[in-house]
Amino acid sequence: MNFEETIKEIYNKIKDIEDNGHSATYIPQLANVSSENFGVYITTTDELGFGLGNCNERFSIQSIAKVLSLCLAYRIVGEKIWDRLGVEPSGSAFNSLVQLETDNGIPRNPFINAGAIVISDILISNLDNPKEDFLAFVRSVSNNTDLNYSSKVADSEKEVGFRNVALCNFIKSFGNIHNDPSDVLDFYFELCSLEMSCKELSEVFLFLANKGRKPIDNTEILTKSQSKRVNALMQTCGFYDESGDFAFKVGLPGKSGVGGGIIAIHPNQYSIAVWSPKLNKKGNSFKGMKFLEEFTTKSELSIF
Ligand code: DON
């Protein structure tokens, strides 16, 4: 398959379509990023890479980091992790509080904010230096020692993150947060502030297209079964209340972030990252979704 021609053709088409979306501004620092950015990068399991547009510019990966924090917690805790949270799509907005009341503080899945906050709590309980250790894990996954948090973005979210404060305290009231909520939130905001380019993102996530192993040296990040399960969760829960639509139109496991990034995985073949900051009404990148829909249609490389 000639990825380069297909990507070029789709990129040029999507670049010029009318985008009625809006950049996320509820995190003030994200409003400073040009909404005109548009990048895409694919890395295959045989480690061929190709990108276009702003594919080497770093952006705030936000909720995409929730996949990496789940992976580290899953590595440490194993299947017991599911005592603390579920594996069902929520069908609600990423920051909703509603289901927690009837579900006794057990978040539906690890990718809604409630679930990622519980994962943050699990990591704090299990790591000596949570911020440093998580960053070291992310760096080791792609041998990229350059990756970093953005303290500007983390501080900016901390000032306005009242909903996440509410979520964390609400979950704590049910006993499903074990540490001090301010420590949990401090770590959660930090991990959301990770910055990567499309190229770096597709390289970091390649192990999920390779049965849990880093293609470069075959190191195991997750077991085969864990890798399958993380992909299944991305398929069913990666786009919040638009997960069904993404499965329907794109047909790949994936995860979005309010910085406008999307990562999508084809198990056994490739990982592809797209970035365009303007978001649709569900909080997912408008052009990113469109690009991936066309890509799997033209390449006939969805998982279905
Ligand atoms: O907690 C928040 O609201 C952000 N740090 C992350 C949200 C996010 O990326 C949702 N994704 N589309």
Automatic annotation (TrEMBL):
Residues annotated to bind substrate: 63, 113, 157, 164, 188, 240, 258
Catalytic activity: L-glutamine + H2O = L-glutamate + NH4(+)
Chain coiled-coil ranges: none
GO function term, MF aspect, one: glutaminase activity
InterPro entries reported for this sequence: Beta-lactam/transpept-like (IPR012338), Glutaminase (IPR015868)
GO biological process, one term: L-glutamine catabolic process
Enzyme Commission numbers on file: 3.5.1.2
Protein name: Glutaminase
Organism field: Polaribacter pacificus
Gene designation per UniProt: glsA
